[in-house]
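Continuing the batch. This is chain 6 of the set; chains 1 through 5 are on the previous pages. Same settings as before, nothing changed between runs. Recording input and output for traceability.
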Amino acid sequence: MGYVKELRKLVGSRPLILVGSNVIVLDKDNRLLMQLRKDNNCWGLAGGALEPGETLEQAAKRELKEETGLFANTVTLFKVFSGEEFYYQYPHGDEVYNVISTYICKDYTGNLNVDHVEVQALQFFEIQQLPSKISPPDLPIIKEFINCLMQSERGGD
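Output for chain 6:
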């Protein structure tokens, strides 16, 4: 988060276009890993802003490791999200328009380890039993993932 903090010193809380990555982590039972965020007290995906020189895939893997303790052996690009729907104002006032590359990870190692700076809790959820309070920037991504999952289960009709 060093790069974004440096930018914020220059521009304050004005809207920034931020590029980042997040990860849809699924366990062997196809449950979705979510983290309870400290900044907005909502459940969301592991992820964050791209640092200078980093690839989107590297950012996804780094954020996953930092926030959950898990190391992604492989990730697969799901989709890139952007637009008005990804405008967000953080509780402390910073405004962003997110451009998010979302990866899916089923191949990981390590043990869950909460990053107490950004995360309150980590939990795997059944897709049909996700928490009701989901972080606004992650909600459309999770909905899109569930829609794709349902379509593939129906045979793509």
